[in-house]
Amino acid sequence: MTVTKNNGPGRAGGFAAIFSGGPVSIAPLVTFRIVFGLLMFFSIARFWLRGWITSVYVDPPFHFTYMGFDWVHPMGSFGMHALFALLGLSALFVTFGFLYRLSITFFFLAFTYVELLDVTTYLNHYYFISLVSFIMIWLPANAAYSSDVRLRPSITRSLVPAWTINLLRFQMACVYFFAGVAKLNPDWMLHAIPMRIWLPAKTHLPIVGPMMYETWVAYLFSWFGAFYDLFIAFFLIYPRTRKFAYLFVIIFHTATAIFFPMIGVFPYVMMTCSLIFFSASFHEKLLSYLPGYSPVASPAPYTYLHPTALRYAVYIFIAIQLLLPFRYVLYPGKLFWHEQGFRFSWRVMLMEKSGSTYFTIRDTASGKSYEVNNREFLTPIQEKMMSTQPDLILRYAHYLAARYRERGVENPGVYGEVYVALNGQRSQLFIDTTVNLAAQPLGWNHYSWVLPYKEQ
Amino acid sequence: MKKTGVLIATCLIAASAVFWGCRKPTDNTQTNPTDGFDKSAMLTNYADNVIAIRYLNMREKVAALKSASDSYAATPSSATQSALLSAYKDAYLQYEIIAPFQFGPAETALLDVYLNYSGGLDYSFTTAGELTGFSVDTATIESNISSGSYNLTTVSRSNLYAQGFGAIGYLAFSSDAISRMTGNTARAKYLGDLVSRMKDLVDGVINNWTAYRTTFVGNTQTNVGSPIGNIVNQLAYQLDMVKGPRIGWPFGKQSNGTVFATKCEGYYAGISKELAEMSIAALKDSYTGGGGLGIDDYLVSLKQDALNTDVLAQFDMTIAKVKAIPGSLSAAFTANPTEVDAAYKEIQKLLTLLKTDVASATAVQITFTDNDGD
Q1: Which is more confident, A445 or A299?
Q2: What is the mean pLDDT of the segment spanning B291-315?
Q3: What is the number of structural domains in chain B?
Q4: Which residues in A lie closer than 8 A to residue B124 (C-beta atoms)?
Q5: Within a domain: residue A132?
Q6: Number of domains, chain A
Q7: Of A155, A274, B14, B145, whose Cβ has the fewest other Cβ atoms within 10 Å?
Q8: Closest to B307 (Cβ–Cβ): which among A381, A419, A426?
């Protein structure tokens, strides 16, 4: 495979390498724009067709919002369906490069708005999509082979600054690498947990099914998964290993899609987005199969108005991405138990955790007590997610206090009896049953009312 | 390209080396590999030795109920009434035994909705006036009888609360039931229609199971809607029904101790305690696969022996505590709250085990929505 001179990320150390080298071919960016838009369109359509817009964003009376985003609310059935229609449309616009800046900006804002509506729908790949669409706002991905250049040929560019492509590669590498680092824990590596719990549930699969009871298979899956996540990005970056590495990408993600269908579109996101690691010549060849594609040589590369400011912005973005997954070290206790600093850190398919919650409202003035029926307020998925995550338990407790105040309970104290089972261990009491959760503040601090994890 | 292959091979070998190296010490602390488990054999046991037999028993009990209710409707007397009570109790208890198998044909036929409507689990059980839990809509029943025009297949709350075991109990065992039935052909016809409807539904489910059996036995997945997923999820759902509509809610758990005695299951026959007890025993029966290959054996094959032992013990403890409640539930709610509370606590412990520990150990999925595996 030939590698265009300035295309690979610089081998110089440090993240300044993202900016190293002169302008490069726009081709990888064009492919990325096309496949990302299409993938998003199908992802949105799938969500709609499964009836999830209604069941997730319209029906539930209560939503778990993110801290600082309590003002984000769903817009009702018509509003949500209209928004999803526009999301699908804007994804197609991105693919065709039509009104690109507007479309990708709208897509980023609308998609992120939807994700902010309810924490219980949080998925790492949704976060990834938000990040990538945000990055894409700043990239000239419509400067070739797009409706925009057809309408305004003057904006055509065949060369773009190297960092525009390198930043997307960095983002991909982050997902893989941190997912790999997260797997380096005793349960995953030494005990093959949760694979040993999940795989025996997969014996229905043809050929490999009967092997799923074997412990060594669980170890193989765990170790291969960790090894793959840790190193695949580097094998994709390095030109000589790239083709083989991409073959592994296909095999690995096809396997995850077969074994764990509930992870949804994640495998497809990774398989398509990994194409960004390929060289410009590869992408030019790929694009040449598309109708009406002809590489235009316009000698003037795409330039930004404020390159220095942008450079610092990119550094800040990178710094955040590198630090965020490690914020958990600021908290005491077992990460999997307390989940403080768990989200936004590429911790995917990492543990088996489930819980049962029983809440009681006690009127501190009259002493009257009312047991809560979670089914009255939460959907099954909301209840499942809430049952194991302290911040969601607290949010729900505050909501319950408000609802019972409406029902005439003057000073509702909210007490929870919560049992959680982690990684195949037996369930144990999760929070202090004597603490009035209604009086506990939400915040970034450690929640001391969560009981410490007892090793069994 | 050659170098690439060598590089990847080296990495894989290195990974395997570390993997094998680490395996030995962990094997000493961890349990040995499972020998495998025949899920198809388990499902075959459920289909042929558990579900099919229990449905056939149900058909017999409903037939007996039909003849007893016909005699009662023809000549209402305390003799025919007590014969009916015995047949009614038998059929109702048998219904509790098939309740954990509310999937496949039973789900399609809405068997639990028509036979024993509970109002579902997703509402506030705090007011006496509303039709909730195991209420009986006596007003609709009376108006159906007097108008003579009704369609029992309509799915509406009032219609569902005017048929099934609850409504039959009202027509047969409410305080002045005999005198009101005497010489009232419209009333007799309504009772007959309710029991016939029950018979038709049960027959329909039995017939459809013949075709469904192949699908059931052949699907060893554990996702939502799969046979194993259904069996495990029903354990939790049905026990939630015991904790809520059967005992906890009419006992006043949601309402600061305000008791709703008439909203007990089988209220007019006064058999609410027996029903609750049987309901839990039926779950144990389902859990153990009726003594054949069941979820208990699956857990043992997954090296969850201790969990299985605890679940079985907790089943027995819970059944014993419910049995220990004196008299009928509707009376005990006010007369013996301590005993009811003791039973309630055990039900909650059992529910936690089934919903959290068992579901987690068997990796059964509870919702359709995508997830990250937590």
Answers
A1: A445
A2: 96
A3: 1
A4: 373, 376
A5: yes
A6: 2
A7: B14
A8: A426
CB A302 within 8 A of CB A140: yes
* Distance in angstroms between the alpha carbons of the first and the last residue of chain B: 39
Residue A422 contacts residue A353 (beta carbons within 8 Å)? yes
Q: Are residues A322 and A359 in the same domain?
A: no
* Structural tokens at position A340: 């403080």
pLDDT digits (tens, 9 = 90+) for A158-203: 999 999 999 999 999 999 999 999 999 999 999 999 999 999 999 9
**Burial profile A65-76: b = 16 or more Cβ within 10 angstroms, e = fewer:** bbeeeeebebee
Q: Coil, strand or helix: which one is B226?
A: coil
CA angle at residue B103 from B98 to B108, to 5 degrees? 110
Q: Are residues A232 and A267 in the same domain?
A: yes
| Host domain of residue A77 | 15-328
CA dihedral B47, B48, B53, B55 (to 10 degrees): 30
> Residues A257, A376: one domain?
no
Partner-chain contact A264 B370, CB within 8 Å: yes
ipTM of the complex, rounded to two decimals: 0.92
A297 and A406 share one domain = no
Using the predicted structure, report yes or no on whether residue B32 has a pLDDT greater than 80.
Answer: no
Which amino acid belongs to residue B89?
K
Q: Which residue of A has its CA nearest to B25?
A: A190
Q: Which residue of B has its CA nearest to A242?
A: B4
B361: nearest CB among A197, A227, A350 = A197
Same domain, A185 and A302: yes
* Residue A277 DSSP label: G
CB atoms within 10 A of CB B290: 18
Given a contact cutoff of 8 angstroms between Cβ atoms, the answer to whether A289 and A34 are in contact is no
Between CA B151 and CA B149 the distance in angstroms is: 7
pLDDT for residue B5 is more than 90: no
For residue B246, give its domain range. 46-361
CA-closest candidate to residue B169, choices B246, B260, B87? B87
Other beta carbons within 10 angstroms of residue B149's beta carbon come to: 7
For A116-154, how does the pLDDT look when each residue is reduced to its tens digit (9 = 90+)? 999 999 999 999 999 999 999 999 999 999 999 999 999
Q: Which residue has the tokens 């999925």?
A: B365
**pTM of the complete model:** 0.92
CATH number of the domain enclosing B270: 1.20.1420.20
Cβ of B372 and A263 within 8 Å? yes
Residues B245-262: pLDDT tens digits? 999 999 999 999 999 999
Indicate whether B222 pLDDT > 70: yes
Report the pLDDT averaged over residues A389-404. Answer: 98
Mean pLDDT over all residues of chain A?
Answer: 94
Q: Which secondary-structure segment (H or E) carries A410?
A: none
